[in-house]
Amino acid sequence: MSLLTIENLSLTIHGTPILKDVSMRVEAGRILGVIGESGSGKSMTAFSVLQLLPHGAACCGRIELSEQDLLAAGEEELCGLRGKEVGMVFQEPMTALNPLQTIGAQVAETILVHERVSRAEAMTRAAEALRRAELPEEKFPLSRYPHELSGGQRQRVVIAMAIALRPKLLIADEPTTALDVTTQAQILALLKRLVSEDGMGLMLISHDLAVVADLADELVIMRTGEVVESGSAYHLFRNMQHPYSRALLQASGHVPERSGGAQEVPLLEVRNVVREYQTHLHGWWGKTTQFRAVDDVSFEIRKGESLGLVGESGCGKSTLTRAILGLEEVQKGEILFDGEPVIDEHHANREVRRRMQVVFQDPYGSFNPRWRVDRLITEPYHLLDAPPLGAARDEAIAEALENVGLSVDDRKKYIHEFSGGQRQRIAIARALIIRPDLIILDEAVSALDVSVRAQVLDLLADLGGKYGLTYLFISHDLSVVRSITERVLVMNSGRIVEEGPTDRVFDEPENDYTKQLVAAAPVLPADVA
Amino acid sequence: MKVLLHNRSMLPGAILTLLFTGAAIISLVWVPYDITILNIADRMKSPSLLHPFGTDQFGRDILSMIMVGARTSIAVALVAVGIGMLAGVPLGLTAAARKGSLPDEVIMRSNDLVFAFPSLLIAVMITAVFGASALNAIIAIGIFNIPVFARLTRGASLTLWSREYVMAARVAGKGRARISVEHILPNVMNLLIVQGTIQFSLGILAEAGLSYVGLGAQPPTASWGRMLADSQTMISLAPHLALFPGLAILLTVLGLNLLGDGLRDLLDPKLRRSRA
Amino acid sequence: MLQYFLKRLLSLGLSLVAASILIFLALEVVPGDPAAYMLGINAQEDTLNALREQLGLNGTILQRYLSWAGGLLVGDFGTSYTYRTPVSELIGERLWVSLPLALYALTLSTMIAFPAGIWAASRRGSLVDTGVMGVTQLGVAIPNFWFAMLMVLVFAINLRWFSAGGFPGWDAGFLAGMKALTLPAIALALPQASILTRVMRSSLLDTLGEDFIRSARAKGLTKGQAMWRHALRNALIPVLTIMGLQFSFLLAGAIIIENVFYLPGLGRLVFQAISSRDLIVVESVVMLLVFAVIVVNFAVDLAYALVDPRLRRRR
Questions:
Q1: Looking at the partner chain, which of B128, B215, B249 has a beta carbon nearest the beta carbon of C143?
Q2: Could you tell me the pTM of the whole model?
Q3: A156 touches B: beta carbon within 8 Å
Q4: CATH number, domain at C243?
Q5: Can you tell me whether residue A22 is helix, strand or coil?
Q6: Coil, strand or helix: which one is A95?
Q7: What's the domain range around A188?
Q8: What is the ipTM of this complex?
Q9: Residues in chain C within 8 Å Cβ distance of B236
Q10: In this structure, what DSSP letter does residue A93 have?
């Protein structure tokens, strides 16, 4: 008998079908991985188990937890189960905790809701739950507020809340997506340990095959509200049947084909750059402290090269990007583009600027929603002294759109009419229209689903060969960087800690931090990818 | 059109607003009775077919006075919104473009300061010095509107400045002023329109209040607030004197508020769930 | 926490100084001789001189400001020309009507708005919600002085439950005083209660959509428990802001409402002062009200810190 049985679950929200005939099982002491891209219905399946669905949702089918029918259970009965029998961990640790209550109180609440115990005893048990989630009371007193903790620490508090009563089933919905790689590895290890200690069943939901590959005993692959394939993880990884799951697997390990190579001439030289921020500790008249976002960084990018820059959030890579783009002045050192300073006499150098462009991460926030595509992609023309007009302009727009695989007819559309992948293509068209030499890709594929990501990487490789482009590829995702760069820089707390050919750095890292990073990065089993 | 019908507040709001603006405009060329002519024989008549809203203590037709009064109310409130927007929006844009800089601090601090003066107090000060008039009411309400628009513009602009399309515009070599006009302003316009209708309705309430206590429009200018003040001593004898001008204010303000709600829903579907 | 308090205190002081300069300058721009302006054209030369002396018009603008502001600090607002008594005494008397009225209205508005807002939010989309929202829509649109007149017509003239106006003074007893202030307070409170109800409802609905409410529900809390234990305090932050702003509207609104009910408060004082051109009284009352608004907003800032731990540690 399974711990959790979902059979033929269908779900509609305001009449729109979300789930169709979904079936899966979770066994006690085992981990079920649920994989799917955005819109696959994986999260809604999880919410159906707890019956925490949005307004207007209607379920049919069967959900049984240890032979108790959850769809037939009343609200009071469900409240008795939530937190006690089934715990849940969410994607966004930054907002999953009440900002106005201490972490101790929030963990203790799980106990107080379900058991008649004194407040003091609940607090003692909360401290124990936090300790099991690796937040010992000595270092993290119960009186801490959520804003005093980092994202990974907050996620541990959420986990402590979920496991305080040692539930039979734990549901984790993308528990590490919002976290850095090293933190992700720690949280995953924690979940695995808790499962084996308590003999819980774990339903681990993720968009990332590699995250689940290490952990899961069984796998379910979902797409547009349906289960396309399921079975034991070991077997499934090696015998994918459904074309969608095969595509998903291939896309995660995708390596785009690239032509052309680096010349020995430097295009961009960064020399001993320092960028400091003053932070005001106590208001604008109070004490200030210096914070070095970029600390004595030097490197160069050669013409035609594809250079990677990896690092976790807060390592200074965004500041460095802004400095290279000439959007911010640096305090020490210099940045030269083809021998010319990026910022000259406190003013951005226009000559240099028109030879550099950038593609950002967020496919939704990168475009003014009130402009049409033609106006959007020609914005960099502002950098030219004599931008093409009339027919020449139309021709340039058409070429730019066709280059990125869109049609000329798209030029009169607004940005909301495009999907995330198409938007990133438009962003590339915008970067390309003034034929720059260097394109900075700032987490440019991080927000995309795996299959779309592979296509965009192919496009970048294509265009790179066609126009002899140089790329600076900034990302926290090692597998992406590995697939598209020749050389890589590893950045940590404002410094470049390691530099070298991508394969060498990732296969035989020398620096301790790089070793940690590489070890933490989730990978597919070697005989699969 | 489909949107209009789907939106519960848009249609009644638009109808009420059109009704009163229409009345104000028509009154420029035609009113049922000339309100400058006093007719003591017909004084304090209850509503009838000849005078649908009755007559006042000087025998003037109340419907005609309300139509002319609409002109005063709408003109005062509209100009005051104009002052608030013309001064407040550029201030807010400037402050947001240079967040944390000295101009930002100065603009925001002086805004906070002006916020401590409700429009009535500004009107009291102006009247004490220059005497009462409709112009003073406009200035008082207008000054009070400036920080409202400045704050709103700054707040909304700040979130836009962190968007990547603004970063892209900077990479394209555009300056802060140009970005403010090309990227920021068009994207805060929706909010400004919605706030504009709300301030418009608040302006009508404020104008009525100021006229009621004698700090607004002076005789012979017709005004809803003063009609109410004049009716107060006779309220037990002729309640209709107080009823109709009050209803006019209530319905105009209600109409504008409904229109504002409707516009907000129409212009920003994301806000639909969390409307105040 | 201390840092936060000190910073707020400093900005409170700066605001007060700036406000006093503003008010002082506004009344300095009186065309011509303020003394002549106040006394009218038929004034005797020696009365004019006496008034000039009293206004301190013989010094420079800076000296005049400093002596005025210095007086404010020790509660000396100067002497009213028309009443021939110290302005502080005049204001003191009237404050005993205006301040209780504003507080009475604030209490009423809060007592109505909190339950109504919570009720509407907890039954979102229901008949209750629609009803509450409809009533508040009317409440926001109604001019409060007109509503006051209608109440006089119904409750004072027709039903005779209350008197139509006037104030017996607190000497007549606390209840008699409160009774005289009841209709004015209701009239003042109605629009504010409507606004506050709407803010309470929407803030609560926003908070109920937050992730941490979902976390609380996943712990096994019922909808009601999640609302009372987690949503309410979080929803209070924007509500506090609005309550702070409302205080200034209540004070200003009180000036108008006092007129409807012939209450001897600050409002009546200021209008009499305007008609008799008693600039000193006008200046003092405006300064006092602005002072009250600034201090209340200071209190709201402090209340934030009590509600929100994130602010206690903030720069």
A1: B249
A2: 0.85
A3: no
A4: 1.10.3720.10
A5: strand
A6: coil
A7: 1-85+171-252
A8: 0.86
A9: 153, 157
A10: T
